[in-house]
Amino acid sequence: MHTLLKTGRLFYGLAIIAYGVQQIVIQDFRPQIIPPFPSWAHQYSIFAISSGVAMIVLGVITTGFVKIVSCNPATACLYLGIYFLLLIITCHIPYLLFIFPHKLSHLGVWADLLKVLAFSGGSFVMTTLFLKDQPPTSKNKRSTKDHLFLAGRLFFCTTMVLFGWSHFVYNSFISQLVPAWLGMSRFWAYFGGVALISAGLAIALKTFLRQVALLLAIMLFLWFVLVHVPGAIANPAAGRGNAIVSAFDAILFCGTALAISRYRNITLTEPEKMN
Questions:
Q1: Which of 106, 110, 216, 252 is the most exposed place for a label (fewest CB within 10 A)?
Q2: Do residues 249 and 5 make contact, with C-beta atoms less than 8 angstroms apart?
Q3: What's phi and psi for 60, nearest 5 deg?
Q4: pTM value?
Q5: How many of the other CB atoms lie within 10 Å of CB of 168?
Q6: Could you tell me which residue, 63 or 82, shows the higher pLDDT?
Q7: Beta pairing partners, 71
Q8: Is the pLDDT of residue 35 over 90?
């Protein structure tokens, strides 16, 4: 069970590192991080590079590869969660509501915001791995750790449910991502949608939470191996590395699901236990 937590932590941290590295390489923000608004953030590469360096450092701390006395894994994950949440509030929502030229009724419009929402949720879930159990502030109230896990879990499962729904809305496109050798591409696209929606709802309602989260992690990892890795190898430079980013999205989501599956079963109160 410690292995699952280590793996979840590693996957999440590696994905954050990958985003940071790519920002430095392209010297700009990925749209999943900051949309075209504010424009000044994209005009000066120093912002993307500085953010990329910070993400790499926080990602490395999250994985446990390096220990920094002044910033433990819980603090690193909490900073990441707040950072992503602030980007949603200050960049993504204003951009979609006041600047984006297309109809907001299309689910695909919200894809980048939903990814950042899952990133933030994953960070909060990871934070709880390193917090000691605390007594509630008053009777029948949750502790800070419980609040963080609740927020992280709901952020993450919201993205899973809506991404699952996209398998029905955009089935023709998603079915093209299914490996040809597997056959029945439309069926597998629908199946993936049902699985994401079902898992997201179960996680939100805490129905067989650990079992469902573990199954979701396994499914996401299989997608990473069967769909995203071949796509990244075939088209590594297309769209400034979109296929590579999608592969690390799957790894990040997988890591978050693994962390959810082990919540309170084994909670790490000492970061050293992960190393």
A1: 106
A2: no
A3: -65, -40
A4: 0.91
A5: 14
A6: 82
A7: 68
A8: yes
State the Cα torsion 168-105-28-22 to the nearest 10°.
Answer: -20
The two structure tokens encoding residue 76: 């690193």
Closest CA to 130 of 66, 61, 84, 56: 61
pLDDT in tens, 85-132: 999 999 999 999 999 887 888 889 999 999 999 999 999 999 998 886
**Residue type for position 52:** G
Which residue range is the domain that position 43 belongs to? 2-274
* Contact partners, residue 187, CB within 8 Å, separation at least 6: none
Q: Phi and psi for 133 in degrees, rounded to 5?
A: -60, 130
Strands (E), 68-163: none
pLDDT band at residue 235 under the 50/70/90 scheme:
confident
CA distance 134 to 14: 29
Asked if 74 contacts 120 with a C-beta cutoff of 8 angstroms, the reply is: no
Structural tokens at position 140: 């029948």
What are 188-192's contacts with CB under 8 Å, separation 24+?
A: 192/164, 192/167, 192/219, 192/223
Token readout for 203 is 């996680």
Instruction: Enter the DSSP assignment of 68.
Output: B
Supply φ then ψ for residue 112, to 5 degrees. -65, -40
d(CA 159, CA 16): 18
